[in-house]
Amino acid sequence: MKTIGVIGGMSWESSAEYYRLLNRYAKARRGGHHNAPSLMVTVDFAPVEANQRAGDWHALGVQMADAAQQLERGGADIVLLATNTMHRVYEAIEAAIAVPFLHIADPTGEALRAAGIERVGLLGTRYTMEQSFYAGRLRDRFGLDTLIPDDEGRAQVHRIIYDELCHGIIESPSRQIYQNVIEDLKARGAQAVILGCTEITLLIRQEDSVLPVFDTTALHVQHAVDWAIEAVS
After folding, report:
1. Residue 197 is among the residues annotated as catalytic for this protein
2. 201 assigned to active site
3. pLDDT tens digits, one per residue of 44-85
């Protein structure tokens, strides 16, 4: 099995989930005492979050590219970025390394198309929901029509991510807010919902949603493990 490199720390709560799922899925695929050979570079989220708020995506691209190069030098055969929002700078990462970079939206887009979904709700940070880097990729590569919550819904979804989930705080009232947002997306025609922030999986499971849930974290991990196994077969 090839070695999976992960850029983590944004937040470390979701990075821990990545590590758990990588090894759980590798064990499910390979059995016995197997786990996923992996490397992780964990960045400090505080300056990352500050640069996000300032809109300094160039600086963030430089930082993510440097982290990817560290992984490549350490022996990673493929690189994952354990966050949806920071895929805003995926081009800087791809340009910096020779090994493959797995974009988080692609396994999700493939899974949605395989399920026959054409219109999907997207939950994530404001950056992911409001900027074009994510929904645009889903549209251009997979022909998906993406719906996002209204202004108040986006504000609530974003606040809960940064003020609660990134700190490992899981609150029932926040789950209800997300459920209300998902119900509104369904009423507007969404056939499914993307958990488009890696922390949302800590709060929302399939049983919490009136729509089919597509968890970007789980789909990203599964695709990476499948690649790492099949690349040596």
Report:
1. yes
2. no
3. 999 999 999 999 999 999 999 999 999 999 999 999 999 999
